[in-house]
Amino acid sequence: xxxxxxxxxxxxxxxxxxxxxxxxxxxxxxxxxxxxxxxxxxxxxxxxxxxxxxxxxxxxxxxxxxxxxxxxxxxxxxxxxxxxxxxxxxxxxxxxxxxxxxxxxxxxxxxxxxxxxxxxxxxxxxxxxxxxxxxxxxxxxxxxxxxxxxxxxxxxxxxxxxxxxxxxxxxxxxxxxxxxxxxxxxxxxxxxxxxxxxxxxxxxxxxxxxxxxxxxxxxxxxxxxxxxxxxxxxxxxxxxxxxxxxxxxxxxxxxxxxxxxxxxxxxxxxxxxxxxxxxxxxxxxxxxxxxxxxxxxxxxxxxxxxxxxxxxxxxxxxxxxxxxxxxxxxxxxxxxxxxxxxxxxxxxxxxxxxxxxxxxxxxxxxxxxxxxxxxxxxxxxxxxxxxxxxxxxxxxxxxxxxxxxxxxxxxxxxxxxxxxxxxxxxxxxxxxxxxxxxxxxxxxxxxxxxxxxxxxxxxxxx
Length: 462
Prior knowledge:
The protein is α/β, with parallel strands linked by helices. 38% of the residues lie in helices and 19% in strands. It has 16 helices and 18 strands. A hairpin with a 4-residue loop joins strand 2 and strand 3.
């Protein structure tokens, strides 16, 4: 049974939110039509409260009385960006989510996030606070605690060892207010199928890892809405898939046994079922090529607290080095290139994609900043800049069943916007050139965004 999608909510940071303007006018801006891949110059956008009240040619739009008018000539306006794979509260592994991660999202134009595993009660508390206007931050879709096998590897997890435990966990998360169910890798086969069935009955979507005990094709047919990290793709593209289900898989064996015909068959199924892919390419590259990066000299390291660098990131790094990166560096480089190649092939086959980074869990993955790198990697995989931009704007809105409210600069949409100094359709790297952000109708000028960054840097140093 295909799984239904639920709506959105808000999450914020402890930094007091900007006030909603009575009216905000962005005058003489070039609006980026992400669906059509078009730049529409000479436009004026009127925001009233948390909605876009009007979009039209500047000579046809008069600013409302008392409006705050921003001269946006020479600027480019896109919908607010989404990071569709993040962790903001993860037990005690990433302290400071409110003070570190959430402001960094806003500072980078990320006005929406999909939290793929966290402490549900805390997230719901933050959601209530933002609804009351006490804190500001990106919109949030939340899974709450992840479902994993009998001995979970991570915090914010629920152990599942039987089908009934799986069904019970789904019912409990639904009752407590989770928006979807997140799967981890170690869930037993019959429990995975029971979870999918229960979630389908209750109308709550399932996303996450393709568990080790089942095939990607089975997960897609069972209604899993999105796959993360390309898990299941190489397994399903190999005649050794049954063997891989039992263990012993890795980049070298994936490359040696890759079968293009099997891959094409799997891609056609994923496209038919509309099984979305959130490949977290920036995390895949960072994890596979750890030797090529130096956290100590990373320019963004000042935004990561010491507890991340010497604690959790060290845990992940040690696990990657000792358990996953068993192939030599040259093999892993070829594997990362093959991942990009397959993402391009899936895209051409009609498989839908979402931009996500696995921040802050991924080593060297910085909230907000790394989403821009993810978009650049989509372009490296063969997407046009417009197609890459859709993975973080229009397509998350479609995935979430919110296409009527988000994902475009259009009358009636929610006012989540990013004002850029340069055209992202010409070069996707221009999404980094942020002049201002509108988050749920609240306007953050460049100086306000810089204050957020300074506050994060100070919080990270404490």
